[in-house]
Amino acid sequence: MNVNIHQSWKPYLEAEFNKPYFKELASFVKCEYKTNRCFPPGNQIFNAFNHCHFDDVKVVIIGQDPYHGEGQANGLCFSVNDSVPHPPSLINIFKELESDLGIPYPKSGNLMRWADQGVLLLNATLTVKAHQAGSHQNKGWEIFTDAVIKIISKKMQGVVFLLWGGYAKHKQKLIDSNKHHILTSGHPSPLSANRGYWFGNKHFSKSNFLLVKEAQTPVEW
Fold first, then answer.
1. Is 65 a residue of the active site?
2. What single string gives the DSSP state of each residue in 187-206?
3. Active-site residue (options: 55, 56, 65, 100)
4. How confident is the model at residue 14 (pLDDT cuts 50, 70, 90)?
5. CA atoms of 117 and 59, how far apart (whole Å)
6. In the record, which residues are listed under signal peptide (predicted)?
């Protein structure tokens, strides 16, 4: 696995890349991509970091696993490639965006436009085998992405963390709440959203309110 990650992250993550767990993870991923159909494409594994550079991070959204269907995953959590039908969670994200900020429901589910503005769309696990959800969990990715969260918490100030659902909420312990803002809600998946745990959280307007308070430019969601 080639770690094609933007240079802004390298001073902070170089130590992780040299640890034994990461070397084992890299070998595992390389082997999986050679013998199986895996997502996202190899050159997009670190897309979240390549579109959101370290010094630009102002919002972090944490997902669990890349989409495992053909042509969906593009290295950004909850995001799909242009012209790909929107998965259920993304539909609910866009519905909340519409009711919160009055933004018309977007045609494309590609969230690269968010990432380019400083929204780190971080999956806890960065790769997956085709049609097998969770197939690359517990191989070392979570150690790496937990380290990313800790580094952002330690080195930066006033970042807004959006923790959606139980899995993401467990990451709260990695974040210094005295320095950063943490917004939590249910997951946007239909199971949680239809029980009333997602809609109305107003996380998009709240994030922008907090960013303005931190003298940051709000996100054009």
1. yes
2. -SSHHHHTTTSSTT--HHHH
3. 65
4. very high
5. 9
6. none
